Amino acid sequence: MQNSSKKYVVDIWSDYVCPWCWIAKRRFEKALESFSEKDDVQVNVRAYRLAANHTPEPMIPALKRKLGNANSALAMMGTVSNYGKVDGLDYCFDTMMFGDTTDAHVLVKAVEDLAVKTRLVEALYEQSTSHGKSLFDRTSLAAIAKDAGVSDESIQLAWSSAELRAEMEADEQFSAQLGAGVPLFVFNNEFSVVGAQPEATFLKALNHMVESMQVDDSSPTGQVCGIDGCKI
Fold this sequence. Notes:
GO terms for molecular function: isomerase activity; oxidoreductase activity. This is Isomerase, putative. InterPro entries: DSBA-like_thioredoxin_dom, Thioredoxin-like_sf. Helix 1 packs across helix 9, helix 4 (102-109) crosses helix 8 (162-178) and helix 5 packs across helix 6 (138-147). It is built from 9 helices and 8 strands. By secondary structure, it is of the alpha+beta class.
């Protein structure tokens, strides 16, 4: 885990093709905004690929296959869409794609400026989830990145850097040790919250972090995606 000059660190593992991850991101951001010590928190974006080495395909058949039947997929998509609306997020499953997000994760790692990185992460979710933009084509990714303010130098670095790809793989290896799917939030490398939890749960975790309290294994688990599928 990287060092921080801030008092507190939250590491977030997610994938841009994870239906629950955008919702979890928005809920955590709302909790952080109301957190009394938000200026002392460093948030690190960590990589997790739900579909490493998987050829891109439309999201709906991918969900049907992973969840085992069409009814489960429809129920899951309906639940996600409804929760998304509450948080102001537009899920267009008809145009969403599922596949290996290596280039998207490495592109985020190539950006050093925190404000630009934050805009890029949000843009990757929004453009792929709401507007059907591809995260698997470098021309599409570059266009999304440029609109978010990413420099041409950073984009070229993403496509050429073996070191950044190794960082992505190290993120995945660490999360594998924790044995959890995504979204996954680790607070000060001491305890974790898994899933698209309510805003209040994230705020409670932030306060626990300040109090240096451990959350035991019985802590609640919200909606989560793993390599084998997404829970409703």
